[in-house]
Write a structure and sequence with these properties.
The protein has 411 residues and is an all-alpha fold. Helix content is 77%, strand content 0%.
């Protein structure tokens, strides 16, 4: 592990079956990061207004938010294969129906968008819960979740670029259909992929007879609720800065530079994962996590020192270095504190916590921008991140106790 994340992940995917499953999971997750934008473009291409486009995209998002925990619960109960096989067919079929068989103003279009959101294949939850079940060392598992965090950063940047490239020779509808089919194929591939276990065979997954389950699933565990609270709070600064960055750029030069400044934000996080994650700490993750969140809070405060587009870009590049490490630690903690019967659902709720925090930050940033300006919103982001660090320190003993209890139960 001393040669860095690339070396660590190369060692990981050399295991039998792991490389294929990891590749299928990347393909399956492509639609997650561009589908809302693609829907807006499709509805506009069909002649609908922005209000209609926004409502269709919003219903898709609502369906995803409501359906994903339920779909993940089926994964925990029945295993990933039947769920991924079903959603891998229904999701692209619903999107193709939306593009080619409905039009703005049809009652069917919002209904189909809702169905497509509900049927989104649970690729994220499936692969992350499987990383928790694979026979890996602690260092290898943390490398896997660090890769997951880095992959999220990469897909958020490259997926919209892929959509733009697909639209060059054709229409938005054709591009959306192509991405949906590719994502569905990825889900089917992930469903059929095999994972290794110690001594041969394939990894044990849920399915068949199960012990009595709690109605709330992972939400019935105080440690999981504590972790989700920290995740929500830590995601709010990201939403705040999403509004503050373009406003600051517009105040200090041409708005055309916004894309480059945003790119520095993402590149800094990726470089931080590759550089700072090059060796695994011997400190337990529940002890390391609060300090990483503290570093994230300090990085969030750096934009307050910016006086130009260039200095803002530098502040974001440096300040974002801990972001992927925080995300990887969050995933590792989910795998440790969640009951093994609820792993897929736990990862789904964790993802939704981040989405909720980000959305709340964007809403708050929009409301604060006029009275406070971008610098005031940057300050609010830094204060909120500090609150997240305080909560992480306050909850570390609970997270540690739960991690030990789960490990002992598994043993």
């Amino acid at each position: 592990m001393t040669d860095g994340l690339p070396h660590g992940f190369r060692e990981l995917i050399r295991r039998h079956h792991v490389a294929g499953a990891a590749c299928w999971s990347v393909v399956a997750r492509l639609p997650v990061y561009l589908m809302s934008l693609a829907m807006v473009l499709v509805v506009r291409e069909q002649g609908g207004g922005y209000a209609r486009a926004g409502s269709v995209a919003a219903l898709y998002t609502v369906g995803m938010a409501v359906g994903s925990p339920l779909i993940a619960r089926f994964v925990d109960r029945r295993g990933r294969r039947p769920v991924l096989l079903a959603t891998g067919v229904v999701h692209p079929a619903a999107l193709a129906l939306l593009v080619w068989a409905t039009r703005p103003g049809d009652w069917a279009q919002p209904v189909v968008a809702l169905v497509a959101g509900i049927a989104l294949p649970p690729a994220n939850a499936s692969i992350r819960s499987l990383w928790a079940r694979l026979p890996l060392t602690e260092a290898e598992r943390e490398t896997a979740y660090l890769w997951e965090a880095l992959l999220t950063e990469v897909l958020m940047v490259t997926a919209p670029l892929l959509l733009a490239a697909l639209m060059l020779p054709g229409s938005a509808g054709l591009a959306l259909t192509a991405v949906a089919v590719v994502g569905g194929a990825g889900a089917l591939g992930l469903a059929l992929a095999r994972f290794p276990v110690a001594g041969g065979g394939t990894v044990a997954e849920p399915g068949g007879a199960v012990a009595k389950r709690r109605p709330l699933g992972p939400l019935g565990e105080p440690a999981m609720l504590t972790l989700m609270t920290v995740m929500v709070v830590c995601a709010v600064p990201v939403g705040l800065m999403t509004l503050a960055i373009p406003a600051f750029v517009a105040e200090h030069g041409s708005p055309g530079g916004t894309g480059l400044v945003y790119a520095c934000w993402g590149v800094g996080s990726a470089v931080g994962a590759l550089w700072l994650g090059r060796s695994q700490s011997r400190v337990a993750v529940h002890r390391r996590f609060p300090w990483l969140v503290t570093a994230y809070a300090a990085g969030t405060a750096l934009p307050l020192l910016a006086v130009s587009q260039l200095t803002l870009a530098a502040a974001l590049a440096v300040g974002s270095a801990p972001i992927a490490l925080v995300a990887a630690s969050e995933m590792t903690l989910v795998s440790k504190v969640a009951d093994g019967r609820y792993l897929a659902e736990a990862f789904t709720w964790a993802s939704l916590a981040t989405v909720v925090g980000d959305a709340a930050g964007q809403q708050a940033g929009g409301l604060m921008m006029d009275p406070l300006g971008p610098r005031g919103v940057f300050a609010a982001a830094a204060v909120t991140a500090c609150v997240g660090a305080g909560l992480a320190f306050a909850g570390r003993r609970l997270l540690g106790r739960r991690s030990v209890a789960v490990a002992e139960r598994a043993a």
